[in-house]
Amino acid sequence: MYRKYKRQIYLLLDPADGGTTADKAINSFIVGLILLNTIAVILETVQSIYTPYRQVFYIIELFSVGFFSIEYLLRIWCCTCIEKYKHPVKGRLKYMLSPGAIIDLLAILPFYLPLMGPGDLRFVRSLRLLRFFRFFKLGRYLNASRVISNVFKSKKEELVLSFVITLFLIVIASCVMYYAEHDAQPEKFSSIPETMWWSVATLTTVGYGDEYPITGLGKFLTACISILGIGMFALPAGILASGFSDEFKKLRKEKNCCPHCGKEI
């Protein structure tokens, strides 16, 4: 009976494994509460709204912390239903160090830490920013977040390679432009690390205009680097597009397969 209730609570809190009306109702409520908290944190910065409705914001915060605290404790209690967390002590400690559990803890931590002592008011105010971690709790309840996660996992090697190539291009562009423009503009292109700001702004085609070449060689090199930048920064987009295409094909295939035998319907 004990294990049965634990399993039921686990299914209620985990949208991926549950599928009943109660699961959907609870998960929809949690998603709505997360969105409400995100909106509340944003509106609290508008004094004309926050000052007259301070009590309403406090009630929302109090209810949310209570609800999310109970949810966090229940998740720790029933996580032993999962095979990798089945050990009653080590399993729970392992779960508490998982990314999802850490986000859940950071979502409620700002409320409890000031209660432990007076502390520095500036530190207490900065803790309030951690309440935005409640927004990241949405990842557990949205199928889109799992698709994105799977895409990054499947394409991590290609993405790392494109990042290394981009970093290499930034360094080369900075070195070349430093030697081309340093004598003409020693205050703007004073060193290679300083020139990296120009390199990043140019390769990303942002071009703030605070630093730009004035020599003929510098202008020619900038034109070449800008063209290379368009191609290099389009590379991760192509990799991700391919990953999303593969992931959506898998999802369509899974929908068309029998849940019992796995064969295509």
Alpha-beta classification: mainly alpha
How many domain modules? 2
CATH architecture of the largest domain: Up-down Bundle
The counted number of beta strands is 0
Terminal residue distance = 37 Å
Mean pLDDT: 80
The CATH homologous superfamily of the largest domain corresponds to Voltage-gated potassium channels. Chain C
> What is the CATH level 1 assignment of the largest domain?
Mainly Alpha
Order of helices and strands: HHHHHHHHHHHH
Topology (SSEs and partners):
Layout: H1 2-13, H2 21-43, H3 47-50, H4 54-78, H5 90-96, H6 99-112, H7 121-127, H8 133-136, H9 143-154, H10 156-181, H11 192-203, H12 216-255
Helix pairs in contact: 1-4, 2-4, 4-6, 9-12, 10-11, 10-12
Task: Summarize it.
The chain has 265 residues and is an all-alpha fold. The chain is 70% helix and 0% strand. It is extended, with a radius of gyration of 26 Å.
Describe this structure in words.
The protein is an all-alpha fold. It has two domains: 2-141, Voltage-gated potassium channels. Chain C (Four Helix Bundle (Hemerythrin (Met), subunit A), Up-down Bundle), CATH 1.20.120; 156-255, Helix Hairpins, CATH 1.10.287.70. The protein has twelve helices and no strands. Helix 1 crosses helix 4 (54-78), helix 4 packs across helix 6 (99-112) and helix 10 (156-181) packs across helix 11 (192-203). The longest helix is centred in the C-terminal third of the chain and has 40 residues, at 216-255. The radius of gyration is 26 Å and the shape is extended. The two termini are 37 Å apart. The mean pLDDT is 80.
